[in-house]
Amino acid sequence: MTGLKKNPPARVRNRIIRGVGDSVVETICTAVVGIFALCCLAPFVYVFFTSFMPYTEYLENPLRIIPATFTLQAYRQIWDYALFRSGYAVTIFITVVGTTLSVFLLTISAYPLSKPGLKGRKIIMGMILFTMFFNGGMIPNYLLIRGLGLFNTVWALIIPGSISAFLLILMKNFIRITIPESLEEAAKVDGANDLRILFSIVVPLLKPAIATMTIFSAVQYWNSYYASMLYISDRKLWPLMLVLRELVVEDTSAVSPVTQMLTSAARTHPFTLKMAAIVITLLPILMIYPFMQRYFVKGISLGSVKE
Amino acid sequence: MNNNARTLSKRAQALRYFLTNKYLYLLLLPCVVYFLIFNYAPMYGLVIAFKDFKFSQGIMGSPWTGLENFRYLFGLSDFYRVLWNSVYLSLLRLVICFPIPILLSLMLNEIPIIRFKRLSQTMIYLPYFISWVVIGGILVNLLSPSWGLINELIKQFGGEPVFFLGSSRYFRGIVLVSHVWKNAGWDTIIYLAAITSINPELYEAATIDGASRVQRILHITLPGIKATIVILLLLSIGNLMNNGFEQIFVLQNTSNLQVSEVFETYTYKLGIVNGRFSFATTVGLFSSVVGFTLLILANAGAKLMGEEGIF
């Protein structure tokens, strides 16, 4: 009976005996966490509103949040920038294809690894775990990509990151916890082979796990720029993050070629353009974020179960 | 004869085992191939640290140079600066950034209003899912001397604008703050997961025994997540030589190079930009061997102290 009890919320716990100390602790914690949470959100709010604001208005009062004049001009100009559009297309492609490949590979690999009795499993797990702590590093990986002929192809951004050791272990733990062995045994007695069991019995039960993997992979593919810095030199194949980097990070002077080209037609200030570019890049993540939370929280909790 | 028959039957048994599980091994095949190609082949590629690698000759054909690259590396004053920058920044992270998620999770756990707690969590986890390019972009523009918010405020109060990212003085502070901003939420989730697995009866018993709220946090919650803290601490120690390419590279520029050059960015410039593949690999190999050794030592130390450790 008692084993089933969950950790009661602080409110219930404290009904037993409440002192003045309790209220003090609760107030301090609420205040500190609240301030930290606001700091986490503030930069987004700031970027979002300044991207709709004429720069002159921003200069008048940099702390003003809600714009008095609302303009979409910066967005129009960013969207007219061909490299930004092609970068968006490349990133969508690598995110969709990469995530699909990644989730498929993670599922089929984690299933056999979740079988405690499978011979050779321990060696393979050891081989996978070792890569989390030691790796060849930047240059040998670069030479490998060139050697495989993947240099300057989108596949260099898709294949190398498709099986993350961390996610594989997470998925393996998921399967072990959610799939009762008796279920598979029953299917075996009915004459189903391991492939059938995996695809028609196990996979449908793994929907929450697959959702978690999809989120982690998609965010990873969308956000990464390390691989493209190394493996893509052709600007036409630049993913969004490299285009954005050139636009908002590298470009600190107001007279750089990108800024000039962008500002020549109309009078949008580079600052506003940069903010708009950031908002367009963030948008997909911000849109799916509210639906993601329950999956990744559960995912991480399960991932901390040790091998 | 007897012996032979036994090995034969053993082999037959192994074969039969393999055949009954053939689909499982088939499913595992892509994964094994993947790790061999993308993780173990590059480890073999590390041999070029002991060679004079030329593209035309390949890894196998390039001539051996023994420890020449290492001797050159250890004689280079740049190397000691990069080593100091990398280790110092990591130590600062360990001392300043590491405790923050622990405090956050302990405090989140004490918040009485569940709705407020949920909302705060949603906000705190968000930055983890944002790219370093975006964060770098926001920081560069927020701190910019020509149009950044911070400098506009300084000007309005009559001060002189400061080029924060162009100065060695502020670089480390900016790295630490942005690191906490992006990553604190992630570790907080891990600690909160550990807190939920603490037996609630412990709290009831302690309350009946007259333990105050703070005492309960210090003597029940904190010891309850100790194992998790140790594991994350060990991983941080193993990462002492790494600072994360993506973060440092977006915040780096020529004027803060004196303090911002760390192993990852140094290797990138030597190898990818300047094409000195062998020498860049030497730098990379040095940092991964030292990092791995630190992890092994820290893990052994944790075990000696009665903790579980990573392996």
Report a brief summary of the structure:
The complex is a heterodimer of chains A (307) and B (311). Chain A has 307 residues and is mainly alpha-helical.
Q: How would you characterize this protein structure?
A:
The complex is a heterodimer of chains A (307) and B (311). By secondary structure, chain A is mostly helical. Chain A has a domain at 82-254 and 288-303: MetI-like (MetI-like fold), CATH 1.10.3720.10. Chain A has 16 helices and no strands. Chain A has helices spanning 10-14, 20-50, 55-60, 73-80, 82-113, 121-133, 138-147, 155-158, 165-178, 181-189, 194-205, 207-223, 226-231, 240-250, 257-264, 270-303. Chain B has a single domain (51-304), classed as MetI-like fold (Orthogonal Bundle), CATH 1.10.3720.10. Chain B has helices at 2-20, 22-45, 58-61, 68-74, 77-97, 99-108, 114-125, 132-142, 149-156, 168-196, 200-208, 213-224, 226-238, 245-251, 257-260, 263-273, 277-304. In chain B, helix 16 (263-273) runs antiparallel to helix 17 (277-304). The model of chain B has no long low-confidence stretch (mean pLDDT 92). At the A-B interface, helix 1, helix 2, helix 5, helix 6 and helix 7 of A face helix 2, helix 6, helix 7, helix 8 and helix 9 of B.
Label the structural class of chain B: mainly alpha
Q: Name the structural class of chain A.
A: mainly alpha
Q: CATH homologous superfamily of chain B?
A: MetI-like
Helix-strand sequence of chain A: HHHHHHHHHHHHHHHH
The quaternary state of the protein chains shown equals heterodimer
What is the straight-line distance between the termini of chain B? Answer: 44 Å
Total beta strand runs of chain A: 0
Number of continuous helical runs of chain A: 16
What is the domain total for the residues of chain B? 1
Helix content of chain B: over 70%
CATH H-level homologous superfamily name of the domain at 82-254 and 288-303 in chain A: MetI-like
**Percent of residues in beta strands of chain A:** under 5%
Main sheet summary of chain B: none
The beta-strand count of chain B equals 0
Helical fraction of chain A equals over 70%
CATH class of the domain at 82-254 and 288-303 in chain A: Mainly Alpha
